[in-house]
Specification:
The complex is a heterodimer of chains A (about 350) and B (about 550). Chain A is mostly beta strands. Chain A folds into 3 domains: about 80 residues, SH3 type barrels; about 60 residues; about 130 residues, 3-Layer(bba) Sandwich (Glucose Oxidase, domain 1), CATH 3.50.30. Chain A has 5 helices and 25 strands. Chain A has a 9-stranded mixed β-sheet with strand order 2-11-20-19-13-15-17-18-12. In chain A, strands 1-25-21-22-23-24 form a 6-stranded mixed β-sheet, with no helix packed on it. The longest helix of chain A is centred in the middle third of the chain and has 16 residues. Chain A is elongated and about 80 Å long. Chain B has 17 helices and 21 strands. In chain B, the strands form 4 sheets. Chain B has an 8-stranded mixed β-sheet with strand order 12-11-10-13-14-15-21-18, sandwiched between helices. A 5-stranded parallel β-sheet of chain B has the order 6-5-7-8-9, sandwiched between helices. A 4-stranded mixed β-sheet of chain B has the order 3-2-1-4, sandwiched between helices. In chain B, strand 1 and strand 2 form a beta hairpin. Chain B is globular, with a radius of gyration of 25 Å. Classes of the chains: A mainly beta (about 350), B alpha/beta (about 550). At the A-B interface, helix 2, strand 6, strand 7 and strand 23 of A face strand 3, helix 1, helix 4, helix 5 and helix 6 of B.
Chain lengths: ~350, ~550
């Protein structure tokens, strides 16, 4: 018994250790590297790069049809008659296009009854690489993966994109950007817009030439309004310039976490890129050193104290909380106040 | 000195929660020594170490006896089950009717289903769906012979699926009906069906009427790796429990990514125990894509003043962080979402719902793990409307999945028989009375209930209401119900006597209608829900 207690301190001592029990807290990874960014291809879209090829920022990597449709053509699909699904359609020599025909090109979908169904369309537009990297994989009809060794700040999800621009902070971490405060001076920038942004401000940001928005929370209504606006814009004659929204936390309002805000401050003025898969902010500039969060910093991610940050004190054991619910809890010290018991499910720490 | 372990770890790694239970054999039988849960991703060893520390602090002699030490707990043998994230199945048919039939069957499996037909999607969109990286299998079906609505598109559909299978060698394909016999299949696939190998499976053709769907469901479930999946192993554990207790047991489970309903029956004579189960991704606590229907389904069970957008925000956050916000208003939201999920589960498992009321209903899954007992009982009463009496219990330590990992049925039965008293936390009993005359549903006294040995005497039962009667955990009684008119409690009678068991929630007597008909008007519906909710939520501070 003596030997064992010598190797394993009693429970009271363990909970008193500086960071004991933090393993129970959800760990949020802030930065990843390298990044395999995936750019989806719809049937008919054309990859403009090959695996192993180096791409630079702004280089077209995918040709995307803004008005895709299915076309039926007779014939073998290629001059040598060995076409397979996924190949590009080679228009037979001498075939005259008729008025109203889709633009030449397209992707062979399948053959049935001696006729090919082709995914083609009109008004092709390029999707450009938002950062420098190496093309890792190209799969026709599925997507292009570009790998970069740069660091990337991880968000919850991305709407639209990809896009890139210089990073500009326009509000405090717990601020809310209103449409009247969206300045034309932010044109070409990816702006850090605080805790939340409404649909009107997003529309204005896009109108004045902002390239992207980073925000802690975006409600479901704002998401739907934005995506509907995006669809309308994409279908319009002139299309839309690249734009993306990186949502860091979720849907309910809360401030941007301080470790993330510290990184954005370090990056202000640098060129960054928003990519959707994985949802990240890619930091091309290797000279910028991203600050690391304190190991005992914990953040309340939900509940009445959502967004509050404090220092880890220790496990509190099972505790009873409102609505008669008993949950595993931990003590957290906010500022100079006495520690407060918070459900461990409401806490997150950073790595 | 013996090498037989005297302690082991049971780990249930769910989509939202990691649960670790410490089992020990201090004497002749296995006992549950402790259990703890934390957000998914928490290392089980860290949880086990905390459990061991608590055991050492609480009872050092017991910890010594079973050989548990905080540094050594990680070396204990372990039973580990995991909740698998649903994979996506593209369901394609040559008509809206055909794809509807297929979708109804696929929805009763663990697959997340995306359906398309030429009437709703053009070939490019259907190809895009089947080529998506998250789609890992395609189900395409047709009648034999094909219906008039299918004939025009069937060749094209066969060609489309064949081409997709050719482009994605890793894709698994299930052909329900004579799809491979169409000329389009060979044109698209570039080879005959026989040369496709194991990744293309043949299933029965679509029937004109909905018939037994087991053959197709078995094929679809067979495509998924299930050796450690909680929703498969838990059924095996319930089967052993039904056998050990000689009781009919229903298991209702709702998790972040899906749900399950199973009914296990003990063996009769030389026939072994058997079970039927429906696993469905549709019964996820919060659907992956939150549309208006999903929001409305939860709003229908809430009594607060959230509008549709704010509720959508709350559900998005619950989906992203299922462990968070589990107290206060968050607990009520979780139970409302669980009710919506249970409703989807019940509508996907009408075959099990048609069976007689089980002796014991086990509730499992993170959705119910931390809710007050009465709130759980009320959630079951609200959604699983089956006249009769059943005992309610909670798989509080999440043991069913890990125990189901034991392959040997005898060994599994032995362990579960040892643990039967520990693995289930008694919630109480639920008594649902059906066919109460309409004239007595408005809160009028419709009958009375007498519990054997109850010092409080008789309890009046009001029509259209639900009431809780205290009955302590471990207590058992015979409940005698007497009514002025014949009602249905398993069978139709004016006087019914049923055995009931106690629990934290006591005995819940539900005199509402079967099925439950809530007021159409939102304010009246909320008022009714709030009235019943007051019985379930202790110290409601709103």
């Amino acid at each position: 018994m003596t030997e064992r207690t010598a190797t394993a301190p009693p429970a009271e001592e363990r909970t008193a250790a500086p960071h004991a029990g933090t393993a129970l807290i959800a760990t949020r990874t802030l930065v990843v590297s390298p990044v395999d960014a995936f750019f989806g291809l719809q049937p008919g879209d054309r990859a403009l790069v090959k695996a192993g090829e180096a791409v630079g920022r702004g280089q077209p990597i995918v040709e995307h049809y803004r008005d895709p449709r299915t076309i039926v053509v007779a014939g073998s699909g290629s001059s040598n008659g060995t076409s397979a699904p996924g190949d590009r359609w080679a228009e037979p020599a001498g075939r005259q296009g008729r008025e109203g025909d889709a633009a030449p090109g397209g992707e062979l979908l399948f053959r049935s009854g001696g006729k090919w169904r082709i995914a083609g369309g009109e008004r092709p537009e390029p999707i450009e690489a938002p950062f420098e990297g190496i093309v890792h994989e190209v799969r026709a009809g599925t997507g292009v993966t570009v790998r970069t060794t740069a660091s990337a700040i991880v968000g919850r999800h991305v709407l639209a994109g990809p896009t890139w621009g210089r990073l500009q902070i326009v509000t405090d971490p717990d601020g809310e950007l209103r449409a009247q405060h969206v300045d034309v001076g932010a044109a070409g920038a990816i702006i850090v817009a605080g805790a939340r942004i409404d649909a009107e401000a997003l529309t204005r940001a896009r109108a004045v030439g902002v390239r992207g928005v980073i925000v802690a929370a975006l409600g479901i209504k704002e998401q739907r309004d934005f995506l509907a606006s995006e669809r309308r814009g994409r279908a319009a004659v002139h299309g839309l310039p690249p734009f993306g929204i990186l949502v860091l936390d979720g849907a309910s309002r809360r401030p941007i976490a301080s470790p993330l805000m510290a990184m954005f401050k370090a990056l202000e003025g640098s060129t960054v890129a928003i990519v959707g898969s994985p949802p990240t902010l890619v930091v091309d500039d290797a000279t910028v050193e991203l600050p690391k969060p304190s190991p005992d910093l914990v953040r309340v991610r939900s509940g009445p104290l959502a967004g509050a940050e404090g220092r880890w004190v220790g496990l509190a054991g099972p505790r009873r909380f409102p609505a008669g619910v008993t949950l595993e809890a931990a003590f957290v010290r906010f500022g100079g106040r006495p520690p407060v018991a918070i459900p461990i499910g409401d806490l997150e720490r950073f790595a | 000195m013996t090498t037989v372990p005297r302690a082991l770890l049971a780990i249930d790694a769910g989509s939202a929660t990691t649960s670790v239970a410490l089992l020990g054999k201090p004497g002749a039988r296995w006992r549950l020594l402790g259990a703890i849960s934390a957000p998914a991703g928490t290392p089980p060893d860290a949880l086990a170490e905390i459990l061991a520390s608590r055991l050492v602090a609480a009872d050092l002699a017991l910890a010594d006896h079973v050989g548990v030490t905080p540094p050594g707990v990680g070396d204990l043998p372990r039973l580990e089950a995991t909740s698998r994230t649903p994979e996506t199945l593209a369901v394609l048919g040559a008509s809206r009717r055909a794809v509807g039939l297929l979708e109804a069957v696929a929805a009763r499996t663990s697959w997340r289903v995306r359906a398309a037909s030429p009437e709703s999607h053009d070939p490019r969109e259907m190809t895009e769906l089947a080529l998506r990286p998250d789609v890992s299998a395609v189900l395409v079906g047709a009648g034999d012979p094909p219906g008039p609505d299918e004939r025009g598109w069937l060749d094209d559909l066969a060609g489309l699926v064949g081409a997709v299978a050719r482009r994605r060698p890793e894709l698994r394909v299930v052909l329900a009906g004579p799809v491979a016999a169409r000329a389009g299949w060979a044109e698209g696939f570039g080879a005959s069906f026989e040369s496709a190998g194991e990744r293309v499976s043949q299933a029965p053709a679509l029937g004109v009427r909905s018939g037994p769907d087991e053959p197709l469901r078995e094929i679809l479930e067979g495509l998924l790796p299930d050796s450690t999946d909680t929703r498969h192993t838990a059924v095996r554990a319930v089967l052993s429990l039904a056998d050990a207790l000689d009781r009919r047991i229903e298991l209702l489970e709702v998790g972040l990514d899906g749900g399950m309903r199973a009914m296990a029956m003990p063996g009769i004579a030389d026939q072994g125990p058997n079970a039927v189960a429906v696993r469905t991704a549709q019964a996820a606590l919060v659907p992956l894509e939150i549309d208006d229907a999903a929001v409305d389904a939860v709003l229908a069970w809430t009594t607060g003043s959230l509008d549709r957008h704010r509720m959508g925000d709350r559900l998005l956050d619950l989906r992203a962080q299922p462990w968070a916000d589990a107290s206060g208003e968050g607990a009520r939201l979780r139970l409302a979402a669980a009710r919506a999920a249970l409703s989807r589960l019940v509508s996907s498992s009408t075959d099990i719902g048609a069976m007689a009321s089980p002796d014991l209903t086990i509730i499992a899954g993170g959705a119910f793990a931390v809710a007050p007992a009465r709130a759980v009982a009320l959630a079951i009463a609200d959604t699983v409307r089956r006249a009769g009496a059943t005992q309610l219990a909670l798989d509080h330590a999440r043991l069913l999945g890990p125990i189901g990992m034991i392959d040997d049925p005898d060994e599994r039965r032995e362990l579960i028989a040892d643990l039967a008293d520990d693995l289930l936390a008694p919630i109480g009993s639920l008594l649902v009375v059906g066919s109460v005359p309409a004239s007595r549903r408005g809160g009028a006294r419709a009958g009375r209930l007498t519990l054997d040995g109850d010092r409080h005497g008789r309890h009046d039962l009001a029509g259209g209401e639900v009431s809780f009667i205290d009955l302590a955990p471990g207590d058992q009684a015979m409940a005698t119900l007497e009514f002025r008119d014949a009602v249905r409690v398993g069978h139709r009678a004016k006087r019914v006597a049923v055995p009931v068991s106690g629990g934290v929630a006591g005995l819940a007597v539900d005199m509402r209608d079967v099925p439950l008909r809530l007021p159409e008007r939102r304010d009246r519906r909320r008022a009714a829900l709030a009235g019943w909710g007051e019985l379930a939520w202790p110290g409601d501070e709103r």
